[in-house]
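testing teh design pipeline on a random one, pls ignore if ur not involved
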């Protein structure tokens, strides 16, 4: 459990608001991503009171990131393989279910959506969150330009 708390504190030190999440990716604390914090004392208290199984990261303006959530189900990873050469290198997390989270700098006004780009491809931004297992968080910086929406505008379905 100490490693997952370290992951939460490391993410918070980088400006990412975090909260405890269970194996089912459901928040373990009241208010879920709305309770996310970057304050180490608050994070330690959440860990003591609710326990981190996974680290939830509030996406959007709260943490300054948006995530491209690529599901490991029909469509998701197939889309990624077909489009990976169009995607810039950025911080990427393998999810416990075998999907991917690609982190990008958040742009004002970007909201979370489900399958707006393609089936199995979700956007986690304002009003959303993603879970980090702490298992593979490579030290690749978060891409800061060009903007998230501009990167994927040609891939959005009309």
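output:
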């Amino acid at each position: 459990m100490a490693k997952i708390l370290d992951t939460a504190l490391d993410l918070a030190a980088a400006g990412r608001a975090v909260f405890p999440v269970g194996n089912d990716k459901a928040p373990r604390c009241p208010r879920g991503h709305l309770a996310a914090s970057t304050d180490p004392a608050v994070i330690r208290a959440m860990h003591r009171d609710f326990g981190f199984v996974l680290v939830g990261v509030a996406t959007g303006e709260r943490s300054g990131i948006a995530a491209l959530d690529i599901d490991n189900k029909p469509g998701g990873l197939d889309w990624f393989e077909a489009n990976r050469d169009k995607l810039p290198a950025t911080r990427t997390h393998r999810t416990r279910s075998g999907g991917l989270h690609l982190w990008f700098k958040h742009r004002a006004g970007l909201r979370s959506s489900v399958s707006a780009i393609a089936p199995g491809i979700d956007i986690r931004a304002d009003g959303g969150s993603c879970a980090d297992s702490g298992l593979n968080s490579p030290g690749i910086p978060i891409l800061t330009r060009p903007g998230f929406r501009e990167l994927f505008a040609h891939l959005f379905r009309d």
